[in-house]
Write a structure and sequence with these properties.
alpha/beta; TIM Barrel; 8-stranded parallel beta barrel; globular; binds 1,3-dihydroxyacetonephosphate
Amino acid sequence: MPPKPLIAGNWKMNGLTADVREIGTLAQALKDGAGCDVAVFPPLTLAAAAREKAGGLLWIGAQDCHTKESGAHTGDISAAMLADMGLQGVIVGHSERRQDHGERDSDVRLKALAAHRAGLCAIICVGETRAEREAGQAEAVVLGQLAASVPESAVPGNTVIAYEPVWAIGTGLTPTQDDIAAMHGTLRRALTDRFGPAAADMRLLYGGSVKPANAAEILPITDVDGALVGGASLRAEDFLGIIRAYDQAD
Ligand SMILES: O=C(CO)COP(=O)(O)O
């Protein structure tokens, strides 16, 4: 049995107080259950209100955390603080953090470890750039990121891997179904080599321009256990269009 799918929405640096109503709309729609788990990662300013609106029907998480538990790190937030506010997960190693903040695999690994120590689920992101894909290095790059970013403490209950090709993020471009299947198969094999049979239960999400219009083609691909959605997660109606792709498959 493949793991229960997860549809996760990464709001990035978007959303003001009024937008929390979208979480309320999602929770209302999820009352009768869904064919997948649902999570939203709003900006931290909205996380407490989002959690209240979610009413336990979807997870609420954060988009980053510090590697340390506390200390003199002005402007940073620790995983322990996120757990203390009742959040369930945290995205680590998103390509925008790797690019904008120079995060390396070793930083991502320490952040994932911090998340695990705090009892949070770490959504660990990997993905190649366009130049790396064109040079035929996509698989090697992603496998390198996976090996160095995922800590030994990873188990299916505390870790989700998100494959997000950088060139597909926010561009409307997606890899072919065969390319997604090949990369996810490669990720699963690498995780199995490292973690044994437990790797079968570790969720592998695809991210990069997932929309209601292409969800039905992407989500059923073997070894795709859900999606990490950016732009199309900001409005409940669009996000539900992706979540419902699972109901229709049932
Ligand atoms: O980066 C992403 C999610 O983390 C994907 O963003 P888009 O869905 O907007 O392409």
